[in-house]
Write a structure and sequence with these properties.
The chain has 419 residues and is an all-beta fold. It is 0% helix and 47% strand.
């Protein structure tokens, strides 16, 4: 995932998600598909869905890609909103309303659930890790350690307990972590219009990027370049000042260059195969495509714009096929998915979803044969066959009330990771 390994991607979640989950907070964890390593190919692939439950504990659902069947369901805790697949064998889920993180081993069906408690009031909303000994949790609200800001808690893999909590900015919404060689974590703080730079090795914040350092207004998404040399910050603007893509070189803490985006951009993702950056302009119904292999902050423009794709209403999430042929856009306003050519940037097809689906997350699996869409409005995950761009099925989330067998209100899928 990213970069980070998406996540956002983590993540993240997650960009600003145009979805309110009970408490009214808006956020989007970022996560990207985890593509298998070299060597022998994987024979089995899975999609992992985290479901928010407004009436009780959320859940984590494992879908077998080969047959599109649910192979495992695990009950989480109150307010499940984000997930992280750690080292391919352990799933971590952030439970916002329970102030904890639950984890279990995915390769063992019915694996026991471990709960890691956070300081009361933390309200975790995102998870990241690109290191072998820790998982990092983004806490959106003040707690006993950080009474005036949000924070990052470090969970030790050895003990599955919080080893430290460090304050960041006000109302953080998402974060990314660079690769093992660097490991810094960058955090969007929407409450004070800043980005915090957290260094896990020292458990400290090494710097804060604000408007004084060139940051645009209302940051909504973070993406790292493949080599970790640059952090791309998507800012939404404020209706008067337009949104921008701000380019932050590592180490400097100062925005080196910016390029304009469309209206109200909210989400970004890097295609590691084509080395392209995709940004969803939610207010303008477009996707901006940049050449992330050719970044030079001394040039004008500092990152080339390859094209702009017209999509449906309120695009909120993007999935790129590993094959490099197409990308798919979840349009939350028009309840559909737009299929776009990765060469011409023309829309090839619009795939309608169920009325009221409100898609918020979309992910492709490593063989490029299927795309999965999280629809909290209908409590389903839609499966799209990429060979003909048709819907092959809709998998229902677990019921909100355990044991309900008919006419049940369903939990709300909010995030999907594939591997």
């Amino acid at each position: 995932m990213i970069p980070f390994r998406r996540t956002g991607f983590l993540l993240s979640i997650v960009a600003v998600l145009l979805l309110e989950l009970g408490c009214g907070d808006q956020y989007r964890p970022v996560a990207n598909p985890i593509i298998g390593p070299g060597g022998q190919p994987q024979t089995t692939h899975y999609a992992y869905v985290v479901n928010y439950n407004p009436s009780g504990p959320g859940s984590s659902v494992q879908i077998d890609v080969s047959g599109d069947t649910t192979s495992q369901v695990q009950t989480m805790a109150l307010g499940s909103v984000a997930e992280l697949l750690y080292l391919r064998d352990t799933m971590f889920v952030a439970n916002r309303d329970a102030d904890n993180v639950t984890s279990f081993v995915i390769v063992v069906t019915g694996s026991p659930i471990t709960s890691t408690n956070l300081p009361q009031g933390s309200h975790p909303v995102a998870l990241v890790s690109t290191v072998a000994d820790s998982v990092f949790v983004l806490n959106q609200d003040p707690n006993s350690v950080c009474p005036n800001t949000g924070s990052i808690s470090t969970i030790s893999i050895a003990t599955l307990a919080v080893s430290n909590t460090v304050c960041v900015g006000v109302h953080p919404t998402q974060m990314i972590q660079l690769s093992n060689a660097f490991d810094e974590i960058y955090v969007i703080n929407q409450g004070d219009n800043s980005v915090s730079i957290f260094v896990p090795s020292s458990q400290s914040v090494s710097g804060t990027v604000t408007t004084a350092q060139g940051l645009g207004l209302n940051p909504t998404a973070l993406v790292s370049s493949l080599d970790g040399a640059f952090i791309f910050i998507v800012t939404a603007g404020d209706g008067i000042n337009p949104g921008t893509l701000d380019i932050l070189p590592r180490y400097t803490g100062i925005i080196a260059a910016s390029v304009p985006l469309g209206v109200a951009p909210s989400f970004g993702i890097l295609d590691p195969n084509l080395n392209r950056l995709y940004v969803a302009n939610t207010g303008g119904n477009t996707v901006s495509v940049f050449d992330a292999s050719n970044v030079n902050v001394s040039n004008s423009p500092p990152i080339p714009l390859l094209g702009t794709a017209n999509v449906g209403t309120a695009p909120i999430s993007i999935a790129v096929l590993p094959s490099g042929t197409q990308f798919y856009v979840a349009d939350s306003g028009s309840n559909d998915v737009t299929v776009v050519s990765a060469s011409s940037f023309n829309a090839l097809k619009t795939i309608p979803l169920a009325s009221g689906a409100n898609p918020v997350w979309i992910a492709s699996e490593p063989t490029s044969t299927k795309v999965y869409v999280a629809n909290p409005g209908t409590g389903t995950v839609t499966i799209i066959q990429t060979v003909n761009n048709t819907i092959s099925g809709n998998l229902a989330a677990p019921p909100q009330v355990a044991g309900c067998n008919s006419s049940c209100a369903l939990q709300q899928p909010v995030m999907i990771i594939t591997n």
